[in-house]
Design a protein that fits this description.
CATH class: Alpha Beta
CATH topology: TIM Barrel
Strand order of the largest sheet: 2-3-6-7-8-9-10-11
Number of helices: 11
Radius of gyration: 18 Å
Pfam family, one: BKACE
GO molecular function, one term: metal ion binding
Structural class: alpha/beta
Oligomer: single chain
Strand content: 15-25%
Protein name: 3-keto-5-aminohexanoate cleavage protein
Shape: globular
Helix content: 25-40%
Cofactor: Zn(2+)
Number of domains: 1
CATH architecture: Alpha-Beta Barrel
Number of strands: 14
Largest sheet: 8 strands, parallel, barrel
Low-confidence stretches: none
Distance between the termini: 31 Å
Keywords: Metal-binding, Transferase, Zinc
Length: 311
């Protein structure tokens, strides 16, 4: 792992798994997503990880025109690195999941490194007051429908978006096997250093939120990639800040945001993404770690620069 002198904070502002009934603070509309991104950047985030939602009901959206309702504001009001998700939702085709990224050609895009069970069905049993009709079935369907990202889909993404447009990737690794999948594409020359590995813990169907797993993931990544990669980590749910702190302590980077955790502390919902960023900045300062600016993040990750995007 490249032990960075400064920590890159990524903020995932809305995602596509949490449904609006889970929190009144979850950004849904373009104005809310744009505002959340701007506030997060002002609080210290260098990278903004973005999904889109339909404003009428908060359901996951892939259409470039929906992304186009908030991306220009983020570009105009911040210098943050825009990271467009290629994850979308399990119901979307790979072409749909790539539609926004291939349209706007961002500096960075997320890429899940494998087909997997990604189960959020348990949350449905804890919700009694539903805001929208689609939400309950959407959550329950995760119990029987996996998230699909086969090797041919990963290769298509790397060639179409990476080689074709110069976008680099946040490689989301939900298990140790995903590191070996990434190594396959590195060996074939489709992924070049320096690259960003995002370790994801605590999703049902992926690796558990056990700190020994985080240490093990770094050990295996070091074995496979040496000093060719930057590492970041987050855990879904209540251990979010613990895992971000662990990652920073190891010399890595961090990710926070309402996509990953709806709470700021036990029993207290986070009122905004910026609140989580501010808390993380305080933790990093206590650890003696400096915070990377967007341009410093660009330099570390070898990004093509804001001017080379279509935003």
């Amino acid at each position: 792992m490249i032990s960075a002198k400064k920590v890159i904070i990524s903020t995932a502002v809305t995602g596509s798994v949490h449904v609006p009934s889970m929190s009144e603070f979850l950004p849904i509309t373009p104005d809310q997503i744009g505002q959340a991104a701007v506030e997060s950047a002002q609080a210290g985030a260098a990278i903004i990880h973005l999904h889109a939602r339909h404003a009428v009901d908060g359901s996951p959206a892939f259409e470039p025109e929906v992304f186009g309702e908030f991306l220009p504001r983020i570009a105009a009001e911040t210098d943050a690195v825009v990271n467009i998700s290629t994850g979308g939702a399990s119901s979307m085709t790979v072409q749909e999941r790539l539609a926004a990224a291939t349209t706007f050609s961002p500096e960075l895009a997320s890429l899940n490194m494998g087909t997997m069970n990604f189960v959020a069905a348990g949350a449905a049993a804890r919700i009694t007051d539903w805001r929208f009709e689609w939400e309950k079935q959407f959550l329950e369907n995760t119990y029987k429908n996996p998230f699909k990202n086969t090797f041919d889909q990963i290769e298509y993404t790397l060639k179409e978006l990476g080689e074709g447009q110069g976008t680099r990737f946040e490689f989301e690794c939900y298990d140790i096997g995903h590191l070996y999948s990434l190594a396959h594409f590195v060996d074939r020359g489709l992924v070049k250093a320096p690259f960003l590995i995002q370790g994801v813990f605590g999703v049902l169907g992926g690796i558990g939120a056990d700190h020994a797993n985080l240490s093990h993931m770094v050990t295996i990544a070091d074995k496979l990639f040496g000093n060719d990669y930057h590492f970041s980590a987050f855990a879904a749910g209540r251990t979010q800040f613990q895992f971000a702190t662990h990652s920073a302590w190891l010399g890595g980077h961090v990710r926070v945001g309402l996509e990953d955790n709806l709470y700021i502390r036990k029993g207290v919902k986070s009122s905004s993404n910026a609140e989580q960023v501010t808390k993380m900045v305080g933790v990093l300062e206590d650890l003696g770690r400096d915070i990377a600016t967007p341009d410093e993040a660009r330099d570390m990750l070898g990004l093509k620069g804001k001017a080379a995007t279509n935003i």
